[in-house]
User: Fold these one by one.
Assistant:
Number 1:
Amino acid sequence: MGFIDDLRQAGEESDLEDFHTELLADVRARVPDGCDSDELDFAFVCEVGGRLLDAEEFQDFIPCRYVGLGPRNKKLRVDGYEFDEADDSIRLLIADFGNKHVLETIIRTRAESLFTQLKAFVDESATGRIWTSASESSDQIGELCSLIKQKHSVKHGGGRSVSRYRFYLITDSKLSDRVKDLPEDEYDGVPVEYHIWDISRLKAVSSSILGTEELEIDFTEFVEGGLPCLKASKSDDYDGFLCVIPGDALAELYDRFGSRLLEGNVRSFLSTSGKINRGIQGTIRAEPGRFFVYNNGISATATSADVRMSENGPRLCSARYLQIVNGGQTTASLQIAKRKDNASLEGIHVQMKLSVVKAKDTELLDSMIQNIAKFSNSQNKVSDADFFSNHPFHRAMERRSRSIKAPASGGAQFNTFWFYERARGQYLNMQSHMTLAQKRSFQRENPRAQLITKTDLAKYENSWLMLPHVVSRGAQKNFVVFAEYVGKEYGADGYKFDNDLYFKEVVARAILFKFVEKMVSQAKATWYGGDYRAQIVTYTLAKLASVIETEAPRLTLDLKSVWTRQSITLGLAGQLEEIAKVVARTITIPPVPQMNVGEWCKKEDCWDGVWSQKILLTPALRSELISAEEASLDGKDARQQGEEDSKINAVIEVVRLNELGCWRRLSEWCAKFSAISGTDSDLVRSASRRGWIPSDRQANRLIQVLRRKEHEGFRIGK
């Protein structure tokens, strides 16, 4: 290895050590000083679990810890899980947290030992032997054991409800270079796969352009020579291919990679719609040879593709970050027919439209993939709310989060930002090309603890809107409901949301949410049993909102004060603790014995039960409330300010787009494809002139024309 290579390796190792130090700091920030090792281990699971959620490796991760012994003193352990409704897999996680300042290495024997403990836990759960000790340890662990036993049992037709077990080992150590991929295994006829997320892999996904692991699919593993394909279209930012994939290969592909192949909104839709399409199943059984004719096929996106010429024409050999954006039901139905019903898929072929998106900019890439998904699903029941990321609401939140500094708090001598992440991975991608000094400065002004993602915001807001049962259904499903709410309330101009006051109130509700999370965690030794923290938090905030509404209808919480303090008062903290204790008792006693508490919390009846619990306002909090009339006037002033800001921003946007040549291209596009009225046409031509500044009304009208033409097919970036 040469001198340059030595320097490069040293730089990479230094970056990895910096990332390791930051990860340890984030873990320790989750727990109070002096906590024990179990609490630190749990904080590590929550921190990394959250990052895997952001990376879409998990969708609804549930941290829960069990350590025990089975027959012949066999070690059993689990640290978290998820049942993926989209592909019927059970994901189980185990942690190896060294918590050392020096970066350590994890070797193969250590990894295999931990996976063995996880597999032993599955065995004891599936057979029911662990039931008593697990139930006594934790309600959530008892529910996990019950889930495994239920899904692993043989169903009608000889299949099992669980498609496969996906085992995850997370560690703050670096995986030894000698460790290659662990081969797939099985347990009682169900495939078991192994994933190790070491510090290097966590760092890699954090610096990915999409904030997620760009999985590479090798199609030659499924079809000899790759998939037959034709180059169908090409532009500066994408290449289009038409491919044909055998039904067996598509089912096997989905069986191996599961819901990771599905674009997020399609995954959410599939998990709630019922995966088995009777029409597709009928065609598989009765007319497999006509499947290609009857079925619309699938649409997919990728960030790169390897297409090679063969004796039989071009073949798609591999694709990076493959995402199925339409055709999730087709894919899942083929896999279910093969796995559960042993149906033959021989002779079945599926057409696939593949769009290889070449954009390197995070926002443009994310936007293009979402738009492809949106328009591919235009004939299906996936609503516009599912593709909400590019809605003006998010752009407004992002804009204000970059310009409004929060007051200094906790003895700090500088102000900070609450960073709103509109596009996935923005926070880390903004730091990817910074020097160490620049990165530290950025993190001081934008602390990770003050990062708000889209799904975080939906949790905060729906909790306050008294929808804790919706929040409890998981991040994606909750996000869709919040998107629908904003879509209805936003109006033509969005003044209700696009103002400084609303942003500050969102942050105040985030502060409340984070406070309750920490309060519940710290109460483990007293009234909190260690289970259902997420449900307790959202129900507590919803109950606070309902207590104020019923006990003091003419008063409201002073969220401006929470923003100014960047913390909550002792009076509010005391009220929240009182509510949380009642919530914890109420939600963990479902109406039917042995009912799954996690599932019970997703039902509106559960919220009705919590809402009906009588809790009085404490005198301390009542004295801090402000009049609803005063808050309403503040809101009215904020909306007026938002209206003025909107006018200014529209003018700025028109001028900015002119610098990009957008209005000239729009005028040419409309002349070819979609004529506009004379007045609008004149405005667009005026906007394309250098130095032209529109009035407020002209700018607003131009933006409306642009949005309308975008919906019809015009692209700003083209």
Note: Residues 3-206 form one domain.
Number 2:
Amino acid sequence: MKRRNFIHRLGHVSALAAAFPNMAFNNLDFSSSSALSNTASRDKIIVLIKLDGGNDGLNTIIPLDQMSELSNARPHVFLPENKIVSLGSNDLGLHPSLGDFKSLFEEERFKIIQNVGYPTPDFSHFRSMDIWQSASDSDEYITSGWMGRYIEDEHPLYPNAYPNEQYPHPLSVELGWQTSLLFTGKSSFTSFIARNPTEFREIINEFDNEYPSDKKGEKLKYLQLIAKQSNLYSTEVKKAYESVNNTFDYPNTNLGQQLEIASRLIGGGLNSRIYMVELGGFDTHDTQVDSSDPTKGQHASILKELNDAVTAFMKNLDAIGRSDDVLTMTFSEFGRTIVSNGSNGTDHGTAAPLFIFGNKVDPSIMGSNPVIPKNAVWQDNLESEFDFRQVYTSLINQWMGGGSTKAKDVLFKDFDEIQIVGKEYVDTDGDGVADINDNCPDTPQGSVVDLNGCVLFSLPANNYAVKTVSASCIGSNNGKISVSAEDTSHTYQVNVSGVENAYSLSSDNGHSIVLEDLEVGLYTINISIPAQEGYLQSFEAKVTEPDPLQGKAQIDYFSKSAQLQLKGSQVYYIEVNGVMMAAHSNLFTVPLKAGKNTIRVTTPLDCQGVYEEVLFMSEKLRYFPNPVDSELNITIPGTDSEIAIEVFSDSGSNLYRGTHSIGASRTIQLPMSRFKSGLYIVTGTGKTVNESFKVIKL
């Protein structure tokens, strides 16, 4: 068995074990996070490798049946046949620096598309790369990129509603220094720049300013939105990057570092579907080859960098079990001339080969071997056999789940498809079932399907609210679980494990019930719809023994109240000085009277215990003068008829104890002439008084 098939089948064996753990088909979860849902979290990923400068295709994939013509046309860069890595009976060979690609080719994980270009080619680096990234005709100027348009079409509320619960991660990631035309949408930039996730910092402090509804204000609002979005995305990207390490080392090169980051983000669970990395140095007008050895030189070095980085990337995808989910594609703005120049190089040309790597590629070589004129001259160039937009159309339809309408919306025109993804993997309607097994090939987006690709009746898992509303004491049956349904157009049947009776959610009970008299334990709640045969949604809810009742009181003397901090229940019965009240919050304020206050708190469950506390709310004594010479006046608010007064020295010795009657003036006189000069502590106690204060005796 070929490695590609072994890895692919191994991945599906593990997926089946996760999807069917000894349960009946009716018990499968077809919610939005289900393995059979077309919105599963392991979406297909595309990694684009931009080869800047114009790659010399004739020295990358060499037509071995044209060696004589190549020797005549490009003697300055010609590669000796005995150094070329042969791909077998197809008369094609790889540059010696791409030796590892032969292994990928033999594993059927490497696709070659020959002679890719576009009509009336432009030979300017900048203009031609703009054409490739915007997917425009050569005489058409478009200011948005095809991938940016694709993302905006898939996510029409971007960027205003992003990130969100369903899409908490960037929609696309660029591992360069700045955003490219490729990801520039019609109304926004759609990529996140992730050059070095270890050095992410909050780019701007959080702010939420109001701006006027004019052009300037709209621009400021957009900048504020993107700044906040970047902060949130940076956190998620850094978290994914730091959560996993690569199994296989990457070369210490620019491309190696970029793909190393990409594989760690993918392995760390980042759900971004589109990545772009770049490799420069392909503008080889001179020193493309070493004059003493044409297998060396600038072109050999950058192809070696490509070879080593892609090979490490594929190995690491295998190691993390994601090689089934990723396609990697190279592209460059153009090829090079057939005829070499006198500086051991080549000049700007036209068509060139394009590479795609992945477990699910169609491994056949696409296109004819280039034909080299016998007496080629400088003006000769390779004819395009495939328009690069055919590749884009095929990627959208066969890998990105777009369909022909989507491709035309993104690329503005219809282009013929070519087979990029193996037919056994193509899923045009994006429902998770390959076209060759799909009995319903036009499933609407977002539908939940069966194994034949046909729509199943389903409701989202969040249609239901199942929660434990009351714990239960050991040995008692006082637990409660509430069940409700948001969609009221159905009548539901509710079955609970360990409970004989079946329940109904209908208009008669407002599609909401409370299951009572439940003992401590784990319950499975199965919800079905009798009118929809085979539909079943299952939930688990646990009734536990309650925590002990806990309480704490904090007195507020100014308001004559106490704030109770309670824990352990949702309902509390509070008795304060014989007056009963109920609380449905963990914080509750109770009034206090002057003097002794008795507080007692219970819950509906006796096993939680009782919280009791006695609080004394003292009347506030007023005293004067201070410092005092002979007599200290003490005023006692309230209704007490007498008060006990004690005087202590600052060392704690009791110097005086006596009981004083309180007259109509509510003021008593305490003789202080008996005490020598110094600091004293005076206490007053009564039915509503318990207070101390300090005075200075002159």
Note: Residues 552 and 565 are 5 Å apart (CA to CA).
Number 3:
Amino acid sequence: MRDLKYVFSFLKPFRREFLAAVFFVMAETAFELIIPLFMADIIDQGIPSRDIPYILELGVKMGVLALLSLTTGLLYARFAARAAMGYGAAVREAEFSKIQSYSFSNLDHFSTSSLITRMTTDITVMQNAITGGLRPMVRGPFMLVMGIVLAFIMNRKLALVFLICTPFLGLCLALIVRKVAPMYGKQQSCMDHLNRVVQENITAIRAIKAFVRGEREEERFGEANETLADTSRTTFHYAVLNLPAFQLTMYTSVVLILWFGGNFIQTGSMQVGELTGFLSYVMQIVNSLMMISNVFLMLTRSLASAHRICQVFQETPALSSPEHPTGTIRDGSIEFDHVSFKYHHKAKEYTMRDVNLHIPAGASVGIIGGTGSSKSTLVQLIPRLYDVTEGAVRVGGSDVRDCSLLQLRDQVAIVLQKNVLFSGTIRENLHWGNPEASDEELWEACRMACADEFVSSFPGGLDTLLEEGGQNLSGGQKQRLCSARTLLKNPKVLILDDSTSAVDTATEAKIRQALSSLTRTTKLIIAQRVTSVMHADQIIILEDGRVHAVGTHESLLASDPVYREIYDSQMKGGMGNGAN
């Protein structure tokens, strides 16, 4: 219930609409409850005495009450919808904002499909709890209390039937809720899995077609879809058991009331109109109990969704800016002081162990190593995408943990290994690097990244529209645009994480030559090709999360067998293959 309380706290800005909806549904219920009293008077007094004016008068009053009930019902729907839609937007915005505060390690705790489901389906469930649950939640108890009071006023003996039926209904509801509650959480997990399958299929549709795996992926989707359908079917199979239970109770109550009521009419202690009005209250009371049971089932499902939403809010960001940052980025010098790192604090093995490095400001540094040697991990510690487990990383003489994250990441720019472009124009994507950049600055960044060659060939130039993820560009073009976007930040430290792997060697040489003009910027270049780093001021070789060797191309070639083996396999091996 704490989860429900927290999630519904976002309803506070819309409490006026919410309270108005509550008021109108109570008014609607009150108008409906008065109608049976007039109906009983018409049957018991108007019809026996054939008093047409009296019948017409009460009929008009019943019509007015019905019209007022309809009006208040419509007003309830209006205010409930405004409260629910505003509430859903507020939760969705807060949840999205929370996700933006996550570090990479926080995002490792949730799958992408799960976060999407939590921001869409789960929030929709909570909205439905307001639009579909507020009415029965208010109307049910109010109608139940008022109906029982009016039924006791009308005939106390017959009203005792409810004291027998209510415990039975309560027992049925408790058993159903107990069975169904855990099933709703499982149902949402199945929805996560289905979304994950759909996301992977749409994202990798080209690979699926290339490998002719369409039929297998259809089977995979069918399995996930059928699992969700089976889980939903089982859940609702138990959830709808409340309907036959309540119908059994309702018709049993009607039969008992007709039996005893008929006897009362025969003895003269009750009139026909009174019994008719009493039966109307019976129906309303039983319907109110049905509403209350549906509310419990809806709250049970909402509780599962509220718990999943709260998990997003309760996740504590692993990284945050210090409240009073003391560090300043004076230059682009970088120092790793006995740095060790593991992705999860419970992991037994360190990904990186005891790394000591000093990189002077303005230097050009190449980083090479085998797959899994922690090259990307090393550079991701510099802009504090992850925090070190032991030791310290300093940029410009300041520990990155003492610096403002905004200032640090403005001064340390990184082109990630996975290129990310957004739907929109090339200009809009480049403005991520500098929103105030002029067209001249945009073209200059494109020239340095050798992106001007293809951008200028497009009819729209900088205003060319990019599809989602830049799918209308080649891999090399995406890499060059991402590099241009990063150069616009004019950072003190520039990190290129294998950002020229899809670029030909001639274009890579042009980019390297352009970057050499950035004498005040420290450049870290992760690459698989020796030609990409051999001209760097120093080269760092990583092996199994440790620094194996540091030196220039010439010194490493002369003294380090690992570097010499890499060089020979790429340079001499390449020439040998070419000769054959």
Note: The CA atoms of residues 35 and 462 lie 70 Å apart.
Number 4:
Amino acid sequence: MKEIDMEIFFSIKEASEWATEYLGKTVTTSNISYLIQYGRIRKFGNNGTIQVSKQELIEYYKSYSGKREISWKNQLGEDLNWALSFEQYKEAETTKHVHRLHPYKGKFIPQLAEYFLDGHTDNFKKESYFAKGDIVLDPFSGSGTTLVQACELGIHAIGIDVSAFNALIGNCKIIKYKLPDVQIEINRITGLLTQFISDSHIIEFEDSLLKSLCEFNNKYFPVPEYKYKVRRGEIDENSYGDEKEKEFLPTFNSLVKEYHIELKQDTSDNFLGKWYLHHIRNEIQFVFDEIKKIKNPDTKKIMAVILSRTIRSCRATTHADLATLKEPISTIYYCAKHGKICKPLFSILKWWKTYSKDTVQRLARFNKLRTDTFQVCLSGDSRTTDIMSELEKKNPVFAGLVTKQKIRGIFSSPPYVGLINYHEQHAYAYELFGFERKDDSEIGSLYKGQGREAKESYIQGISDVLNNCKKFLAEDYDIFLVANDKYNMYPAIAENAGMQIVNQYKRPVLNRTEKDKGAYSEIIFHLKKCE
């Protein structure tokens, strides 16, 4: 080692030896190379004499990221590939452009798909598996992340999903729209919706309600004094919140009566009837009726997605229960999340405007990145779908290309056993748009549980998908499946499909939507044909 301007520099080998002693655990030269390659520390010198700064190593290992990496590896094992944590990306980057056109539970971040689809190699990914002009298949397409990233990288892609609504979302992300036409329809419907709302007195009602709530909350829930007193135990939040909620309720009821506001719908025997207030439901139907008048089929589809995203945000629930619905609410309530009295939504107009503007901006950003390649999501069961036959109906030119060069491989994230009901998360859209639900065809659905029978059914289901899809793959295919295989099912799945697991990439999952923020990992299984 040597000292330059009072700063100590190490070679990579010296750095690994120093870090091993500093941390009291083995740090390999590959670990140091990873820190350089992924921008955790800087590289000094050239390829012949690469050096790193001792001070930067110390700062990294003392940082939150460094501590978390060490802690998670202690819990989950040293084979945890921290390069695949993508911790360096902000949320705006992991939800870039069309990836956030619509909420979707259970999707992986685009950087993960990009890592395996692009042509780079590194200390962990020793060779590239896909090249520009190749065709990739995602038989569990979900919200279409693989399709979008393939389009960015110049790779053709086919998705399949048993959920008709998922297929709509995926296809809407990769359609090349006439954006002026989309904007014209947004302006038309927004103007009509504004007029429709003005006839219902909702605007005047909400203005009066918000004014009264503001005065009340400023008086009884002053910021930041109120939360400070709650933290110090000077105020019992539950009893005080209940007390003030009851105190404001007469004001709310008086305004409802004054402006002739209907709260609950006449029926609550379906999702739209149960989880939307009367005026919200009327506005939803009004906008949907206007969307049905649109002539351009692509514009009609993206407008339907904007409406779906809007109504998802307008369910009659508290702010704390948006992720997991508990009981519908039609009146004011004490909100522990915001520390004041809050109200449900009475109109979709605000969110319709917000998501309309956001959608157009995201589509425009993606247009600058997309390549002239084919992407399509087929709606069907990947266990039985005849890919060539269905693709011929959707895009004969693309079908001809697949016939000529075959599908190079698969990148996909199959559903986890007994974790998510993929149809129920978009129940409102199925009811409004009239899509056929195929809950019984979901592999690993939540309602099937995680018992022995459910696991056996899952193994059989994923195996059947691979056996069906491999008929359309190139001879020397590469398959990458993202899974949290805590029940060790994928060795059996690979065997059933006549494949072998040639590599496993174990990655930490840092940004989960669940409340459990503990150490959690998933594995990317690399499968190839048995030799």
Note: Confidence is low (pLDDT under 50) at residues 1-5.
